[in-house]
Amino acid sequence: MGEPEFPLRIGGAPEGGIRDRTGPAGPDGGGTGPATDPPVRVLFVASECAPWVKTGGLADVVAALPAALVAAGLDVRVCLPFYRSIRREVGEAPACATVLGALVREATLPSGVPVYLIDAPWLFGRDGGPYQDGEGRDWRDNAQRFGLFARVCASLASDETPLLWRPDVFHGHDWQAGLGPMWLKTALPGAAPSVMTIHNLAFQGLFPPETVNALRLPPGVYAVEGVEFYGRLSFLKAGLHYADVLTTVSPTYAREIQEEAQGCGLHGLLARRRADLTGIVNGIDDIVWNPATDPLITARYDSKTLAEKRFNKEALQRRFDLVVDPTRPLFGMVGRLTWQKGVDLVAEIADRLVQAGGQLAVLGTGERGLEDSLRVLARRHRGAIAVRIGFEEGLAHEIEAGADLFLMPSRFEPCGLNQMYSQRYGTPPVARATGGLADTIRAVGPGDCAGSGFLFEEATGTALWEAVEQALAAYRDASCWTRIMCHGMRQDFSWTRSALRYRALYHALVSGAAARRRMPG
Ligand code: ADP
Q: What integer pLDDT is reported at residue 221 of this predicted model?
């Protein structure tokens, strides 16, 4: 099938393009008015959602947050591209409408949250990842793919929608959804207000200027006060410029991205919009990531049965061909092997870590050079360092449960999930004090046992090593170590609190939009 003209016609839904709506819902998930008002309806627009398609933390958030919002009384639906990988999971989901030549199919996530799948087979019906082919090259038509996706999703939040269900809020995630707020603000009648969440500012969806015409963007938007970013079209900037409200995934990251060092060129825009920008820390799926019930680990435990954890350590040492020795401090690491994650800093201290009696088990995929440097270290320190290149959900659980300490020396970390998993599994993290790491780890001070992990400031091997030495000293003091483990295990990382903050934000947005509609003129 060839690529369609863009934009195309809007097709009628079998359910008949209903326009009736009783007005926006109000606070408390119900209304400002009578108690019978419907709950606030939110359309989540994202390119990943666990367990169907996942390359990182975004997928976990898009799976868990809607479910938590539904539990908090909201009506949330998720919109995803209908990738071939999702088709394999759900089969031919029933179609309910056609928008811009794409079929809108309906399915349900394992959590019970309804999903709209945007089926454009010429864009999404292919093997490979959501953004890249099997060789790790970006798909050449990513602008067309996510341009159409965002445009269709914006239609669903405007008078153009052929669906019965009509959202009060469009909530876009990362650059793949970025053009949605622009369409809503500049071209679509009856548009819902929009929220844009930054999960990682480093990924911006930048395309050559010709793309503006290829996607038939509205006249005038290709400007500095619009979607232009230094001579290119930026999908993320479009979202950040046009959305009514901006959020990111931790308060510290919200501050950091307003500064040049971490602002990826967008710090000026974000600083100007600081009154609209909120940092809300992510939660974790505390059913999947629970050492007391986790079926993927060797021995289950909680803070009262910590001794069981040693069986997981032994299993992990065997699994990674490390010397089986309960006394050697075992460091774990899981994630993308990239510069962002500070993998080079770990490589820098690896020799010292082994000399100090430590072991290291790494799971991840990423930049070839970093993967190779870890392989070299594993060959040099057989039995003490081991690396598994790949993406293995089960093994990630085994590392969280089996390691004594968890390494996360990220240069920047919008929120990060692994440090929360590791605290919950009684595996204190050694992490850089940045973004969500600073917000979710209570630092153990020198000589005390009061926190839940170890933080360092400078992104250098020396600073990381000092934190590792501090952690090793605490590890050798059994009662101090148990206290640190228990502090992490008892923290509440559930989504409940964060979901309530999003709910308050939607309510403010919906009541503001309603007030604007009521204003004369
Ligand atoms: P990011 O989104 O920047 O990659 P996060 O810490 O927010 O980092 O989330 C990463 C998620 O992906 C976590 O759930 C982590 O366990 C998982 N993950 C990353 N790499 C791997 C891997 N190689 N194998 C299994 N899980 C992985």
A: 98
Distance (angstroms) between ligand 1 centre and the Cα of 230 equals 31
Q: Which pTM does this prediction carry? A: 0.90
177-201 pLDDT, tens per residue? 999 999 999 999 999 999 999 999 9
Q: Could you give the angle at which helices 478-489 and 461-475 cross, rounded to 10 degrees?
A: 110
> Ligand 1 centre and the CA of 417: distance in Å?
7
Give the mutation target among 418, 421, 424 for probing the ligand 1 site: most ligand atoms within 8 A of CB.
418
pLDDT digits (tens, 9 = 90+) for 320-338: 999 999 999 999 999 999 9
Delimit the domains of the chain by residue range. Answer: 10-19+41-283+496-518, 306-489
Fold of 306-489: Rossmann fold (3.40.50)
**Ligand 1 geometric centre to CA of 54 (Å):** 9
The string of pLDDT tens digits covering residues 137-147 is: 999 999 999 99
Q: Are strands 232-234 and 206-207 parallel, antiparallel or unpaired?
A: antiparallel
Three-class SS of residue 346?
helix
DSSP string, 46-58: -S-BTTTB-SSHH
Does 306-489 match 10-19+41-283+496-518 at the fold level?
yes
Cα–Cα distance, 151 to 464 (Å, whole number) = 45
Q: What is the DSSP string of 120-186?
A: -HHHH-SSS-SSB-TTSPBPTTHHHHHHHHHHHHHHHTSTT--SS---SEEEEESGGGTHHHHHHHH
Task: Read off the amino acid at residue 96.
Answer: C
Determine the Cα–Cα distance for residues 297 and 211; give it in Å rounded to an integer.
48
On the question of pLDDT at 204 being above 70, the answer is yes
- For 76, phi then psi, to 5°, come to -115, 135
pLDDT per position as a tens digit, 485-504: 999 999 999 999 999 999 99
Protein residues with CB under 6 Å of any ligand 1 atom: 56-57, 60, 334-336, 363-365, 391-393, 396, 415-418
- Whether 465 has a pLDDT exceeding 70, the answer reads yes
Cα–ligand 1 centroid distance for 304 (angstroms): 28
Half-sphere exposure of 140 (CA within 13 A, CB side): 0
Nearest CA to ligand 1 atom 22: 391
Query: Hey, what are 144's tokens?
Result: 């067309």
Residue nearest to atom 26 of ligand 1 (CA): 393
- Examine residue 251 and say whether the peptide bond preceding it is cis (omega within 30 degrees of 0): no
**Rounded-to-integer distance, Cα 385 and Cα 382, Å:** 6
Of all protein residues, whose CA lies closest to atom 4 belonging to ligand 1?
Answer: 56
Question: Looking at domain 10-19+41-283+496-518, which CATH architecture does it have?
Answer: 3-Layer(aba) Sandwich (3.40)
